[in-house]
What we know:
Blueprint: H1 2-21, H2 27-43, H3 49-87, H4 91-115
Helix pairs in contact: 1-2, 2-3, 2-4, 3-4
Amino acid sequence: MRRFALFGECLLAGLLVLLLALPVVTLLPGLAAGCAHIKAHVDGETTTVRSYFDRVRAAWPGGWVASVGVVVGFAVLAVDVLVLRTRVAGGGFVAVVCGVAAVGLAVVFLGAAGVGR
């Protein structure tokens, strides 16, 4: 029964993170609150929807700036890939480097969401 409860909490947290990821500026606070929500469930603490939004409010002060920065970073990398692949000789190699940079940016962003409270 405990595994099923964890599965249900993961589904709930995933839906709440998806809801908060739609307006892009709440992406990092939503992810951080989702990570904290699952950790609280595993630790036996309160995991209501209200406590989730309390965690979002706690992560909000610096989280929206990081969310906007990451979205701008992904946009710049995407534009670089599109421009370089079509207009520059050897642009395929640079596009691969931009792809690796995008993966690195995603890893850093998700790591910040997991650590941030």
